[in-house]
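Bit of a strange request maybe. I'm writing a small parser for structure token strings and I need a real example to test against, not something I typed by hand. Could someone generate the tokens for this chain?
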Amino acid sequence: MNLPNSFSNLFNNYEFETIDDDKHAALIVKTVLAQGGWDQIMWLFKRYGKRKVGEVFLEDYYGLRTLPESTRRLWEMLFVDESEWQDSHNDSRWQRRRLVHPPARNM
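Reply from user aminoacidic:
Good idea to test on real output. This should exercise your parser:
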């Protein structure tokens, strides 16, 4: 099955007619989550369901992180468990540790 023609602008780097919504589900999900409009996102959830979309998102979220930061922040509210989200955002490993002291005044 092929994608609706309204998706062609999202896949300029691909031969649009060759994209199969079964074979290339992960590519489609990530592209639509990152760049899609409301109608395209609604189609995505109707076609694949929240579970499949969530699986693709979480695989990227906990894996290579190919999605843009802004996309991850938006969709993590839906797909990431709140306690895990809190832990990942309160992780002290990523806090700044260096302080810049003002220069000493010569008197």
